[in-house]
Amino acid sequence: MTSRTALISGAGIAGPALAALLTARGVAVTVVEQAAVPRSGGQAVDLRGAARTVAQRMGLLDAIRAVSLDQRGIAWVRGDGSIAARMGVDAFGGEGIVSEIEVLRGDLAAVLADATADVEYVYGDSIVALDDDGSGVDVAFEHAPGRRFDLVVGADGLHSVVRSLAFGPEEDFTRDLGLYSCWFTAPAGIDVDGWMLMHNLPGGRVATVRPGRVPGELKAGLSFRSGRIAYDRADVAAQKAIVADHFADGGWEVQRLVAAMHDASDFGFDSTAQVHLPSWSHGRIVLLGDAAWSPTQLTGLGTTLAMVGAYVLAGELAHAADAAPNDDSSGGLGRDAEIRAALRRYEERMRPFVASAQKLPPGGVDAFVPTRALEIRMRLAVMGLMTRWPLNRIMAGQFDKAMDFDLPDYGAVGVHAGPVG
Ligand SMILES: Cc1cc2nc3c(=O)[nH]c(=O)nc-3n(C[C@H](O)[C@H](O)[C@H](O)COP(=O)(O)OP(=O)(O)OC[C@H]3O[C@@H](n4cnc5c(N)ncnc54)[C@H](O)[C@@H]3O)c2cc1C
């Protein structure tokens, strides 16, 4: 009997990408998302290297470019507003800190979710129990009645419920970097002139602001170093108060950003942690994207890994199903042995890419958010030299990572009208 149903937890980047790719192979896919409605906007993310090829093969590259941000690059700003250093979007072949294709997370998620009408999206719900009996997975939901699926995929991010239920508690697999970030939309009022502006403050804090997609709208972020903070993930007012507390002082446009944060209706806040697991699958349950391997925002590679991972997982499942001596197979997921083999190969292919991506850029958190004024001055000086020899040679290794993956050819995977490369 060929297996043909998949449940994906999480409608971020990895979930909708996998949903579209599996649906194109004849699998009946349901996506369950905790948020009540699709979340628009959000932080800016990068589509780099191999992920661009995946988008192109899916026929979605033009649609993604159409919603990408129009930015000139990144500029580091001193407290008096003067520019200390710049790196244009064309640096490092378009793979620099602000890459050639940057898009708001919600906009990319929408393009992926709109790629096919055949996926069943269920918003405002969550998996609460999983029972894998070897031939299928019985799933209980917070609201919807229980259902049985042939495969369950946890693409539900850093705080994955699938990982908690099937693999163990979050703290067993996360490595906290001691950095918290919030992101939100701010009204026009800071002249960014097309640049992403970044300002480091003493005490391990950084403020960023960049052009939004809608004219007159800015996208802002505030990050600070801290030991673990206990907070209620549902209490936005309390989260804003935590951030405001850390940014009570600070020059440049920081106080204007804090005021905008208080008014923002699209505020997001989270810790920064990497995820490391000895295995990404357990029977018919598999993890994908940040849930499996969060590399963190410091690498700029989380979205690339999510897209490439979805492509490889869908491709390996289809490849195994096609290769099986199937009776009634016209696509689908294959039988138990084929699913296990596919999940093994998915992991073998992705492990080296993930391991390389998880290596933080030189200096790690210390370089991103230095603590003392002298360190900040040194950082600005270094940033000014990044595109010049010999620093450009050192940094090229970091920026080339996204291309250092031999993307397998799984045959036609186009999910949307457009060129399938
Ligand atoms: C501040 C910040 C800046 C970043 N900057 C960059 C960048 O510049 N470049 C880059 O490439 N990446 C960046 N990232 C990382 C990037 O956002 C992630 O790597 C990427 O979104 C991973 O995609 P994902 O689908 O695996 O997870 P997510 O995009 O996190 O999606 C997970 C989804 O699962 C849902 N979910 C959670 N729990 C449940 C549940 N119980 N049931 C159902 N659904 C659930 C969530 O609501 C969410 O929609 C940044 C992240 C942050 C926080």
From TrEMBL:
It holds the Pfam family FAD_binding_3. Coiled coil: none annotated. GO terms for molecular function: FAD binding; monooxygenase activity. Gene3D superfamilies: D-Amino Acid Oxidase, subunit A, domain 2, FAD/NAD(P)-binding domain. Residues 6-321 form the FAD-binding domain. Keywords: Monooxygenase, Oxidoreductase, Signal. InterPro entries: FAD-bd, FAD/NAD-bd_sf, FAD_aromatic-hydroxylase. Residues 1-19 form the signal peptide. This is FAD-binding monooxygenase. It comes from Naasia lichenicola.
